[in-house]
Design goal:
Layout (H helix, E strand, L loop, with lengths): L3 H7 L31 E8 L12 E8 L4 E8 L9 E6 L7 E5 L9 H4 L17 E7 L2 H7 L5 E3 L13 E3 L8 E6 L22 E8 L9 E8 L4 E11 L36 E2 L2 E2 L11 E6 L4 E6 L17
Parallel strand pairs: 1-8
Antiparallel strand pairs: 1-6, 2-3, 2-7, 3-4, 5-6, 9-10, 11-12, 13-14, 15-16
Length: 340
């Protein structure tokens, strides 16, 4: 609940704005600018910068941008911040001229999209996720107004008082609680695309029935108490000093090595006209020639010498090395042996 004694004590101070940014040379009556804003227009305000606000203390500020009298009875107060993520996210408080002295209102901004490019990045979601907003607001705040009759006498219907430059109506830093990058608000689970095989030069490239090179989203906006379990070849560890969880790829860790291929989504298939069922489009170990006498590929050049013929069997993907000695002179050896 508001404390009237606190508001009464501060009603004739620049508070809640920084000294020299409001209430300067205020005329006793008539129109005013933001710099001349009467002290009794606003009695108190405070703001919480959300974990995705991008607000940096000492660099960014919050300010009263404008006061608008939209009708005979409605007055709006619009606050903004120069933090990059908040450029298009103002906080607007509304008052009716009949509202009592020290009326208090709390307002929250829009919520960030937890996965803003999910439609373009993901092929399909493995779960049906409701189209509900998730996470914490970019920022929020409260406003306590003073004598609204003073605003009515200085601001006609349809008129607006707007901030002229960046030195006016700056909110006191002590009234700003900054939670930027200070808490985890939700968790998304997704997989990057698998490493897909490339065909050698002059070979038709692999083609799949679906887009490749994208991110596959499994879950969005998981909140509350979450339990993480290590998957295949994955090690999980917690660092209590830095409040972080580390994911490391370790052979045979977690669930070990999978016995079968793990599809990224239920409908994932091998390439079109694939020779086998491998999703990545490559070959089984026994289908690939990896080295010859320790010499690795991807390209191996084999030259035929004297007495050797090399024949390509393209239909069966074979290379036949025929040692036929056809162009060599044969030597006759004696079968007689002698001993001394």
């Amino acid at each position: 609940m508001p404390r009237p004694n606190f508001f009464n004590d501060n009603i004739n101070r620049t508070f809640p704005f920084q000294r020299g940014t409001a209430g300067v040379d205020t005329p006793p009556s008539g129109p005013v600018t933001m710099l001349q804003l009467p002290d009794d227009f606003i009695a108190d305000c405070g703001f919480i910068m959300g974990p995705e606000s991008g607000f940096v203390e000492g660099t960014h500020s919050i300010f009263l941008y404008k006061i608008s009298r939209l009708s005979a009875s409605r007055i709006d107060f619009e606050f903004r911040s120069d933090a990059p993520n908040l450029n298009d996210t103002p906080l607007i408080f509304s008052r009716d001229v009949s509202d009592p002295l020290y009326t208090r209102e709390f307002v929250e901004s829009d919520l960030p999209n937890p996965f803003p490019n999910s439609q373009s990045l993901s092929l399909s979601l493995s779960e049906s996720i409701p189209n509900s907003e998730c996470g914490e607001p970019y920022w929020s705040g409260y406003l306590v107004t003073g004598r609204l009759e003073q605003i009515v006498t200085r601001l006609g219907i349809g008129e607006t008082i707007t901030r002229a430059d960046n030195t006016e109506t700056l909110v006191e830093p002590a009234l700003i609680q900054n939670l930027d990058q200070n808490q985890l608000v939700s968790l998304n689970i997704a997989n990057a695309d698998r490493t897909r095989a490339f065909r050698p030069l002059n070979c038709p490239p692999n083609e799949w029935d679906f887009p490749t090179g994208i991110i596959y989203v499994n879950y969005e906006c998981l909140q509350g108490d979450l339990r993480l379990r290590a998957g295949y070849n994955l090690s999980l560890s917690q660092n209590n000093l830095s409040n972080t969880i580390q994911f490391e790829a370790v052979l045979n860790a977690g669930l070990g090595e999978p016995c079968e291929q793990i599809p990224l989504f239920p409908e994932e298939t091998p390439p079109i006209d694939a020779d086998n069922n491998l999703l990545a489009g490559d070959f089984y170990c026994n289908e690939v020639l990896r080295t010859v006498n320790g010499i690795a590929g991807p390209n191996l050049n084999v030259f035929a010498g004297n007495g050797v013929a090399i024949v390509a069997d393209n239909a069966n993907h074979k290379l036949i090395i025929d040692i036929n000695l056809s162009d060599l002179s044969l030597c006759a050896y004696s079968a007689v042996s002698e001993s001394i």
